[in-house]
Task: structure prediction
Amino acid sequence: MEKTIINALKKHAEGQIAKHRVNVEIYMQNAVGVGEHHDILETMDIEIAKIADAEDKMDVVLKHLKIANPRI
Result:
């Protein structure tokens, strides 16, 4: 069960990273498509911060939860 939980946490973080990376790529390729955002750089900065947050969470899962239970 612990392995399943850790895998779910990791996959969730990976999904968030993929989601926000695609958003940044869309902004870079077609900023016109995001009409409600008047400041594209600020919007991209928010997406990058979300990527960093998800990466930090994945690092914590990999570092602390795997060490706590070496069977994983």
In short: The chain has a mean pLDDT of 85. The chain has two helices and no strands. Residues 2-68 form one domain. Helices lie at 2-29, 40-68.
